[in-house]
Amino acid sequence: MMTIVRTTTGVQEQEPEVATALDALAREGARRMILAALEVEVEEYRRQHHEARDSRGHALVVRNGQAQPRRVTVGAGTVTIRAPRVNDQRVLNVTRQKFTSAILPPYLRRSPQVNAVLPLLYLHGLSTGDFREALPVLLGADAAGLSPSAITRLTAAWRTDYEQWRARPLADRDFIYLWVDGVHFTIRLEEDRLAALVVVGVRLDGTKEVIAIEDGYRESTESWLTVLRDLKRRGLRAPALAIGDGALGFWAAVREVWPETREQRCWVHRIANVLDKLPTRLQPQAKRALHDMMYADTRAACEQAIDRFAQDYAAKYPKAVHSLTTDVARLLTHFEFPAAHWKHIRTTNPIESTFATVKLRTRVTKGAGSRTAGLTMAFKLLEAAQQSWRRLDAHELLPLVRAGRGFKDGQPVERAEEPSEKKTGKVAA
Question: In the list 76, 216, 233, 351, which could disulfide-bond 223, CB 3.0-4.6 Å?
Answer without folding.
Answer: 216
